[in-house]
Structures are given as structure tokens and as C-alpha cells.
Design brief:
With 126 residues, the chain is an alpha+beta fold. The protein is 19% helix and 15% strand.
């Protein structure tokens, strides 16, 4: 349905190259767990090997937010567990859904007071 701009950001975790971050908005009827399984399959097809938490990776697909859906399982958190403190994830989401609400609290998601620190919009497009 829509794609955010692409942002360049500093990595979280061990020293490594900068990341490119973006978000897509789409309609999905599957349960979040089935969606996650599909995303992990895409990551594997593209050559991702999970060897080090937050370590270098070729791709990282996450479920950031689903309108009206909350899930807190050990390996799946919707909205993403760190969404509100990671500008590199929140900024692209808010580009697509500026009035996105946290389904647990009903509050509108907003950028942290520190703003877009370390998040630089690029000229590249998806």
C-alpha cells in the first residue's frame, strides 16, 4: 500500500557498518506469528544467518506495528518491543501512519524528545 523513505542509521550492537532502514505498509490477514514465519523465510532466502545478536546481517525484517493488534509472546512482540525508543524504526513507520496508536494504551506513537538523532533520510527509494 505504501513505502517509507529510506533512512541511513548507526547500528545497534557491536561495531559494524551503518544500516539502511525503511518500512512498508500492507494489508495482511494472517496471524502475526504466520507473518513472522514468512519474514524469517524471506531473510533465509536472501542469505541471512543468525549467529550473533544485533551482529552484522544482510537483511533484518521486523513486524513494527499492526493496527489494533497487541502480542507479547517470548519471540514475538507487536508493536515491536523497542519501537518507541528506536528512531530508526519509528521514523519510517510514522512516515506511513502519522497517527499510529499503541494498541495497548491507545496513545498516539510519537518520536522521542531526542527526535531523529542519528537517522538521516537518503535519496534512495524502494
Amino acid at each position: 500500500m505504501a513505502r517509507s523513505p529510506i533512512y541511513e542509521t548507526e547500528p545497534v550492537g557491536p561495531p559494524q557498518s551503518r544500516f539502511l532502514n525503511a518500512a512498508t505498509l500492507f494489508f495482511e490477514e494472517r496471524h502475526p506469528r504466520a507473518l513472522l514465519k514468512g519474514l524469517i523465510s524471506i531473510e533465509r532466502e536472501l542469505g541471512r544467518v543468525r549467529s550473533e545478536r544485533w551482529g552484522p546481517r544482510i537483511i533484518d525484517l521486523d513486524i513494527l506495528w499492526i493496527e489494533g493488534v497487541s502480542c507479547d509472546d517470548p519471540d514475538l512482540h507487536v508493536p515491536h518491543a523497542a519501537l518507541t525508543v528506536r528512531a530508526f524504526a519509528l521514523r519510517p513507520l510514522l512516515d506511513l501512519v502519522p497517527d499510529a496508536k499503541d494498541p495497548r494504551t491507545g496513545e498516539i506513537l510519537r518520536m522521542p524528545l531526542s527526535g531523529d538523532a542519528g537517522v538521516r533520510r537518503t535519496k534512495w527509494r524502494l
